[in-house]
Amino acid sequence: MTGTRRTLAVLFLLPALVLLGALVVYPVGYSVVRSFYDRSGDSFAGLDNYRALFTDDGIRTALRNNVVWVVFAPAVATALGLVFAVLTERVRWATAFKLVVFMPMAISMLAAGIIFRLVYDQAPEKGVANAVWVGVHDTFVTSSAFPRAHPGRDSPLEAAGGGAFVTKLPVRAGVPVALPLVGVAPDRLPDGTGPAAAARPEEGGITGTVWQDFTRGRGSGTLNAVDASEVGYAGMRIEAVRDGEVVASTRAAGDGTFSLPAAADGALLRLPAGNFQEPYNGLDWLGPSLVTPAIIGSYVWMWAGFAMVLIGAGLAGVPRELLEAARVDGAGEWQVFRRITVPLLAPVLAVVTVTLMINVLKVFDLVFIIAPGSSQDDANVLALELYRKGFAADQPGVASAIAVFLLLLVVPVMWFNVRRLRREARR
Known about the structure:
Blueprint: H1 6-34, H2 48-51, H3 57-87, H4 94-102, H5 109-119, H6 128-140, E1 157-161, E2 164-167, E3 177-181, E4 206-212, E5 237-242, E6 245-251, E7 257-260, E8 268-271, H7 291-316, H8 320-328, H9 333-344, H10 346-361, H11 365-370, H12 382-392, H13 396-426
Parallel strand pairs: 3-4
Antiparallel strand pairs: 1-2, 2-8, 4-7, 5-6, 5-8
Helix pairs in contact: 1-13, 3-7, 3-10, 3-12, 4-7, 7-10, 8-9, 10-13, 12-13
């Protein structure tokens, strides 16, 4: 068409063809051949390596997770990209918003994995996800201030089941009750605590003190008696229980003292389990049940900007007169979006979704970096299993079979995408 001689064209294309052959054609061909040999590469194994794809537990878990990835990750990223693209048309600072959303695309998968490994850290003081989750939880549910408190030696308290403690004997009016506890570090005591005080007798009522008794090795003190150096358990809840029913309840003051009405006479005093519950520590984002959705969330964070840019380009080509005509005819914004915008963007949405599906099938970095060793088996995907079988387990035949299987999964999707692009080009 251009009059260029074929020999000259071949000379210009030769370097690219050599690189393509060395970096793509040869590795693919070698992987196909190697997948039919055993671990040593000397004996022909037939289809044994391919049979392992459906019998090995690790590979089956990887297959199952890949299905989850292909179904949810592209769909969520495309949906968010569509929402962002439509909304940014209505704000004046659209350019800045698009820049912020697209910025994660400039970060490598390795860096993104390290970022989200910290985001999902179990400790709320380190992980942003749990810091937010714990903050919301603690807004509505008060955490216990005495999670490790328990009765000491020769204590008048005994375990009552379920984490609660109860007095061994019924209490009597006019006789102060001592409820000594140990186990809370001094720096973990809640605000408002002060020096413990011995309760004074109260005629017709029940009085007592609940406090931090002395800890062996830390100063001197009398066992099960209030000393000057000890502090009260401010806010501790005390219940009077008779025949399994709570007849009275109160909370300890800053010095640990409390008072109950005459109805508590002859009852047992119980310190409910709510006083000793461990503080809420958030979700185990990288545990076996949540690790895959958590990693998918990090992938969506990276690729939603990519979807937004492509869909935004398609949205720019949507005829505005169709949208205005629909609004004039009385259609609401939701109807315009659902019945006009989305159908007109269907080709772009299909290209974005298929492109992300191809990308998802090859995901490796995020899973390898984010999933801890204890959960990596549960978060396993085919690309990661290929690496583990080829290097950690020294099974190159099985690894090659996984590589060929991945290629077979990607090729139809790529063919569909190329065919659609050519169809759009003809239009």
